[in-house]
């Protein structure tokens, strides 16, 4: 069987980050309801016109021997008699039915776009989601074996359905089929590990973090023995520009993708940068003061990297000191110190996966040392991190990527915390160009994503040979692009705040690389507090020229 090429699109919905008063919300809700009501009315008209066409056809076929109907000229059979063509009448009725149906779809789509853009039912959706998650959590605690078997059965069903669609097994479909269960199962497992009783979960949402804290008490010291706890952070130099100037969240996400994929070798920008590397940028404002943007890619899984798999558990802990001791947090704060970020200078952080958890941890636990104004996360489970209200958070998540669901909870729904949630679906195929018989050309068209240009955004990077894991940054970029196209006031507020945080001219981009090692001189686990960034940074021996 020949392999097919699949193209993907992401449909986004916006939750939280409200930018208008409750009265305005009610007005938008009323408009959406009116559009839906009109859509239902046109749908009913479409059905009526369709019924009329069927009735005409029925009347015509009920009199097959009627001379007047069969004659080409009815007046020749019955002088002075005229009639209309049943075929013509039926065709006109069918046309009216189709036109009414199109209007119904357009009105319904407009209502849907309005609902998504303005988060009209966000609170109700989150309440339903929370209730469902708590039920799955309780079931997982009560009958863990049954819950795991049920989840495995759903995953197997997804694998089989994907096999039928693609003609080959593809594990990505397992995550797609189970995404509705993931938060509940994870919080149930977290409750069991953390010792939280059934029913107690309704009081809080941090069951996974409690469980991670218990695990980290064991995994942390074991990691220190195997990997070492001596962290060496050095400045490195790129041969080519990787992280460029950012003027928006979209720009920053593209730079995040470039750095993440370059250091893992998924793209080749010939920069010389390797794994365990973050970027710190200084923007100079018109008044001469500085603003900063720190770009933090995700897990790279290298044996001596501070961004290994093991550090994720510590980052997810409910223990503040344990989170601060995570190697990836230590590395980024050390890089920020070496870069010279002042205590009162505004900082924006953007991170993917583990990088987003690091950003949330710094915003939560280093609020007294840095002025973290804005955090952007992509595919990061950060719902339970105690980020202060002064810090704005823009989170982008894909519903079936699993990683974002590892915290077992939905993100807070508040004015300063906005979540863009994306849903991946196959994109329509492009229409090829043609040459007509008279020599004229009919150009091809690019795919129209959904029934209108705002319904979804394409995933960049070309086609794939099947469904892939939606945790790649390109999917989060598509989700944010679609949310931007929707014109959400809440997203516009967050975008404006991000731009204001880093407003200025980019003056320098510095890259810092971290490596873990064993050392007899390594301080004990009790030490870990990096010196205050207000102190003069010690950069001796911190520079490494990338060959």
UniProtKB/TrEMBL annotation:
GO molecular function ontology, one term from the record: hydrolase activity, acting on ester bonds
Renumbered residue ranges of the record's region Disordered: 516-547
Keyword entries, A-Z: Hydrolase
Domain GPI inositol-deacylase PGAP1-like alpha/beta: 326-391
Residue ranges with Polar residues bias: 537-547
Entry keyword Coiled coil: no
InterPro entries, per database record: AB_hydrolase_fold, PGAP1-ab_dom-like
Range of residues in the leader sequence: none
Keyword hit for tRNA processing: no
Protein's name in the database: Alpha/beta hydrolase
The organism of origin for this protein: Bifidobacterium reuteri DSM 23975
